Amino acid sequence: MSMRVFCLVAELKSFAAAAQRLRISPAMASKHVMQLEKRLGTRLLNRTSRRVSLSESGTLYFEQTRQMLDSLDEVEAAVSHATVVPRGTLRLTAPVWMANTIFASVLADYQARYPDVRLDVDLSGRLVNLVEEGFDLALRATAAPDEALIARPITNVPFYMVAAPAYLERAGRPARIADIAGHALLHYALYPGESFSFEGENGPETIKLDPVLRSANETLLHMAALEGMGLAFLPKWLVTADIAAGRLEHVMPEHVVFVGKLFAVYPSRKYLSAKVRTFIDFVAADKRMR
């Protein structure tokens, strides 16, 4: 019981809120945590009059304990043939470009279906260590997922070559693949090289672009494209509304095609909790993600 109280206090950052959820008094919730700290010989929570936060030891203990409790809930439910209700905080990391209206609407619908799940979404763009940093799940667009992790394919992600009308009017609209060579490129820093191969009318053609801006942040590249700085390869989800509104143009869609694959990546099948499993299934089944 003390571990459950501690985890809920850590998630809600409040003894009162945790006590209310567990239907115990705040004093009893505090007593449980203090007993746990005494048994472990370390402070798990930093307490002030206004807020509660995890200590360094508390962060480590919280991540390990939370996984154990999720697994225990599922085992007990399986034994009793009960339905596991997803609950708790789902810590998710995803690419920067998933800060878009489509993904936001998917998150909103998932949370409406599973109201006991709280979503903690990291869109910093960095490649996090799921185990060491306590993330439940990652959504990653990659051709080669980490072999040490479990990766389930979710959907294909088309990348469009786009540019603002003002840029194309100034630099010229390509009529054939060779015309793209030398154009200003808003270069995604994690893509190796500045040369690209496309399937032309007479077979593969390789061209080289001029990188005028390099960044690993797709949001910045998107904004720079809207400002007319050059061509950019951006995910369909990020630019569909701009293309429909005429703010961006899809350049040579019949020839310039990149299709990535989005994977759900998680540390182990052994600790696949109900919140992780239902989120993956929900996202994979959602037509908006295609």
List the helices and strands and how they pair.
Elements lengths: L1 H11 L2 H8 L3 H15 L4 E3 L4 E3 L1 H25 L7 E6 L7 H13 L3 E6 L7 H4 L3 E5 L8 E14 L1 H7 L12 E5 L6 E6 L2 E6 L1 E6 L2 H9 L4 E5 H10 L3 E2 L7 E9 L7 H12 L5
Parallel strand pairs: 3-4, 3-5, 7-10, 7-11
Antiparallel strand pairs: 1-2, 5-13, 6-11, 6-12, 6-13, 8-9
Helix pairs in contact: 1-2, 1-3, 1-4, 2-3
Structure description:
- The chain is of the alpha/beta class and 290 residues long.
- It folds into three domains: 2-80, Arc Repressor Mutant, subunit A (Orthogonal Bundle), CATH 1.10.10; 88-150 and 264-289, 3-Layer(aba) Sandwich (D-Maltodextrin-Binding Protein, domain 2), CATH 3.40.190; 157-260, D-Maltodextrin-Binding Protein, domain 2, CATH 3.40.190.
- The chain is built from ten helices and 13 strands.
- It has helices at residues 2-12, 15-22, 26-40, 56-80, 101-113, 130-133, 165-171, 218-226, 236-245, 274-285; strands at residues 45-47, 52-54, 88-93, 117-122, 137-141, 150-163, 184-188, 195-200, 203-208, 210-215, 231-235, 249-250, 258-266.
- The strands form three sheets. Strands 3, 4, 5, 6, 7, 10, 11, 12 and 13 form a nine-stranded mixed sheet that branches. The chain has a two-stranded antiparallel ribbon with strand order 1-2.
- Strand 1 (45-47) and strand 2 form a beta hairpin.
